[in-house]
Amino acid sequence: MRKSWLFFSQTVTVLLAAYFVVATLQPQWVNRRALSNAVAVIEAPVGPAGSAAPAGSFAAAAKAASAAVVSINTSKAAARNPNMNDPWFRFFFGDQGGQIEPQVGLGSGVIVSPNGYILTNNHVVEGADDIEVILNDTRRAKAKVIGTDPETDLAILKIELDKLPVIVLGSSDTAQVGDPVLAIGNPFGVGQTVTSGIVSALGRNQLGINTFENFIQTDAAINPGNSGGALVDTQGRLLGINTAIYSRSGGSMGIGFAIPVSTGKQVLESIVKDGQVTRGWIGVEPQQLSPELAETFGIKPGAAGGVVITGVLQNGPAAQAGIVPGDVILEVNGKAVGTVSELLTAVAALKPGLSAPLAVWRKDKKTDIAVVPGTRQRPQQRRQ
Length: 384
Fold this sequence. Notes:
alpha+beta; seven-stranded antiparallel sheet; extended
């Protein structure tokens, strides 16, 4: 036992002495392993090709949404110059200029279904004879127009491709002013571009862009070619379809407008299911309530807000329900209305043929009137 302990103590002494000699003469031999471990710890969070994003980066949101945002190229076939029917024109000018050059356009769209449905703006595809969709993975496909809704400036396309990336639909109803957002599209045809900003305002209307307006305003840069592209939140979820900009120069000035995804979803479901969007109609001529109109119709101060009816279509749904000029509509189906745009939107949301209550201020009291809405006629398509 004593010999074993003596041997152990001598061995430890020799090893310690060797360690101190090596540490003194060749310290790098001792520190090489520790240095290797330290480098591994430092580099581990970065991952391959620098995949870890810095704090505040929107890279994950952009990556999640961009695959489902497509470029849309449209063309309209060349038309014969109508002057070529005039023999005198042909005599003096011959066949020069006999064909009008084909019209081409570009825009963006968002894949919203694995079945190939794409949500975009109506003005992007309106009048087009040929529509080509280019995916972010460079695949191309001819697109078919399933349906359009000019009153909201939305259109539904369909392509036939496998394994399509699909964007996740967010909730535009819960968006708040100040929320960070990204705009994704193909501005000026330069290729897919991501810009960032915030929600600048909600419920923008009376802009004269569409019949039914409820825009999300953003300062994320939107330029020509972005129309039909995606406005997404920081999780990459779709909040709206980029539609228009306010500009004096043709470029972005920090005021862009997007159609809420809630509207886009309604239009998509209606067109896919019924082939068109069906809206309610009651046959009235509304105007914003002003002191002058209040005096003209003898409306007492008790009517706070609302929309005054200045005309009622004979035998229309409103007339049959007993609404008369001078009535002030305060609510439609339980939803308060304070502007003409809000009234049109609320009435349009009613289902034709089903009775709905309207809260009306008449003279000096509030009353409820049940109206059975009719079907709003689709506007005539513009011809180009």
